[in-house]
Amino acid sequence: MQVDYKKTADAIQGEFAKDSDVLRMDFTVGGRSAALFYIDGFVDKIAFESSILRPIKRLTELPFPYADTINQATSLTTPMKTVEGTEEAAKIVAEGDIALVIDGAEGIFIFSERAYQTRGIQEPPVTNVLRGPREGFVEDVKINMTMLRRKLKTPKLTFKKAFVGKYTDTPVIICYIQGVASPDVVDEVEKRINAIDMDGVVESSYIARYLETNYRSLFTQVGTSEKPDIIAAKMLEGRVAVIVDGSPMVLTVPFILFEHFQASEDYYVKSFRASFIRMVRLMALVLAIALPGAYVALQEYQYQMFPLKFLISIMNSIYGIPFTPTLEMLTILIIFEILNEASVRMPRYVGMALSVVGAIVLGETAVNAGLFSTPAILVISISTIGLYCVPDATEASSILRVLFVAIAGVAGLMGLILAALALIAYLADLRSFGTSYLAPFAPLIERDWQDGLIKESVRDMIERPYSVPTYNRVRRR
């Protein structure tokens, strides 16, 4: 196919809107008409002029095939490509590359000299550690791929690219270690991503909803992390990672509930310390969800279960409170959620001041005014602190504790126990790419207990987790 300069150049320009930011530069190369298409903000101007534009303009002759002559004339950091369709060329230009159209050429030539501003690599604002790597993913997909490559220096590390979104055409990278990850899981991830048909993807959460088996569930079934060491470790266990351009959060599947209680720091400290902290996290989350409901149930129905001295103290503190125990607890929960949302959305320093005013001044004033009781404020405070011991589970946990309070207010302690059993049964039924959500405890997988609530030394972890499908079970010989 030989390119018709006028027809091809006009067709590429016609793919873009009338008031687009795409620039067109018409000139001659070796006596033939040519046109360059690029987006100003995406191109390194110095490299573009010195490596592409000036060398091409200096050509006095342009023998066929043109590609060989242009390759010899230019000094490119990335290889030149050739495409034939104008739609494909326009799509590549929209991604930030440069398209060159020459009359009579064997195709449309594509150059890559991208140079747009990105956020520098720094410690993630959410996942802070005392010990271990401090670098976090950024919003650029290529930088994130490079950070993973630095952790996994093996030719078996595989990257599969897909583009999702009618208008955003967002690059989505499926990452896995060939020979470790299960081919069935890789194929299923690729199938679900390729089946996405939507206008645009601006964050990895969009992709996560399509990877979940039950997207209406309260619980997330896709792991997320913004630290390369965590993603690399999960891939070494057989999981598949998904990087989405524009998002610093990388997804992993399959995902199990117990991953919420694991932290990267657990693998950098002694095993007894990691085991103790995991027990603390589990106890904190159970208290966060169940404590407000249990307090309401005991106060409403089973108050005789309180120790006598504590019961007298509670009776004195709730005297004159205008709300029922259930309504009081729900009101305080809603106020705490409002304070939390306000402190997160406000500027950092204003948010800190707001937290102090809300937690201390407002709480103390409400108690002194006789609106709320001191034990209720104390219970919610303990519950909220416990909630943030497992930050990845706060979304579901904050809703669960409200539901448990409502159930306890209606059915008492027995209703609370039945609700907890129903929750466990529901979680046991959840699946993530064939993996049980409550593994390795339901079903019982004793071999995976080495990295469960009690964490053993890395030297004792000879096999990869049986909870995760993998092609190669042996981790260390």
What does this structure look like?
The structure is a single chain. With 477 residues, this protein is an alpha+beta fold. It has three domains: 5-111, no CATH class; 141-267, no CATH class; 271-429, no CATH class. 45% of the residues lie in helices and 13% in strands. The chain is built from 14 helices and twelve strands. A five-stranded antiparallel sheet has the order 1-2-4-5-3, with helices on both faces. The longest helix has 36 residues, at 394-429.
Distance between the termini: 56 Å
Fraction of residues in H or I helices: 40-55%
Order of helices and strands, N to C? Answer: HEEHHEHEEHEEHHEHEEHHHHHHEE
Number of strands: 12
| Percentage of residues in strands | 5-15%
Number of helices: 14
Please mark out the parts with pLDDT under 50 across 5 or more consecutive residues, or reply none. Answer: none
Task: Report the sheet with the most strands, covering strand number, pairing sense and barrel closure.
Answer: 5 strands, antiparallel
User: Structural class of the secondary elements?
Assistant: alpha+beta
Task: Count the domains.
Answer: 3
Report mean pLDDT, rounded to a whole number.
85
**What is the radius of gyration?**
29 Å
How would you sum up the global shape? Answer: elongated
Spatial order of strands in the largest sheet: 1-2-4-5-3
